[in-house]
Amino acid sequence: MIPANTRIELRRRVLEENDTIAERVRSTLRSRGVRSLNIAGSPGAGKTALIAAMAPHLKPHLRIAALVGDVETDHDARRLERAGIPALQIETHGACHLDAAMTHDHLERILSHRPELLIIENVGNLVCPASYDLGEDLMVALLSVTEGEDKPAKYPALFRAAHEVVLTKTDLLPHLPFDVPTFDRNLAPLRSGDRAHHTSAQTGGGVTEWVDHLLERLLQRNPLN
Ligand SMILES: Nc1nc2c(ncn2[C@@H]2O[C@H](COP(=O)(O)OP(=O)(O)OP(=O)(O)O)[C@@H](O)[C@H]2O)c(=O)[nH]1
Ligand SMILES: [Mg+2]
After folding, report:
1. Which of 101, 118, 160, 169 would be 144's cystine partner, CB 3.0–4.6 Å?
2. Stated pTM of the model
3. Around 77, how many Cα atoms within 13 Å sit in the side-chain half-sphere?
4. Best mutation site among 54, 78, 144 for ligand 1, i.e. most ligand atoms within 8 A of its Cβ?
5. Which architecture does CATH list for 4-221?
6. Mean of the per-residue pLDDT values for the chain?
């Protein structure tokens, strides 16, 4: 059995190494004028569906491409390609999150599509993605209404680390006991009162408003040339 302090030291070194590579990714993206998002949330929270629903609203403003993390299969990259987004799949074969080295290894191939916005869909997980900077401009945490309003309180790290939070599948609200004011109360202390955006990839509800807000924030940080 490895002693606890050795495990903590190892984890610290792994995260430091990750941060170094993430800065390299960030500086490559900035030097090429590419804005970037890291989209994280539980398995099935609706990450791929939301990215596909955002595409028609983003495309008039920015050329987009996607890197997609999953433990196995290239299903999500194929789904995004069908939605008109050039996409590369990263299969982690076990790891529960993407890390900066994986992003770095796929960067030149995805940049060959000359995106102005790179969307990275993380592996479905509400815990590990919070600790791994991928070199993105903004991290977006998704929670679907089917997961329960208590999740920000139970898994605070991701909701605290994210620059934006999106509540997904809101078309299902009439059919579920999910209580939006309770969700807002659980989220508020983690985000200095910032509220979640509400979207439905199914009906398109809230997607235009969400993309408008996102574009404003992305272009503020990194204006179009
Ligand atoms: N009703 C409804 N269903 C949705 C919505 N968005 C996604 N779904 C469904 O939820 C399921 C999971 O959606 P995905 O987009 O695959 O979720 P994901 O977060 O990308 O999943 P992983 O990549 O496997 O972690 C699918 O069956 C979708 O059709 C939505 O807005 N409303
Ligand atoms: Mg997906």
Report:
1. 169
2. 0.96
3. 19
4. 144
5. 3-Layer(aba) Sandwich (3.40)
6. 96
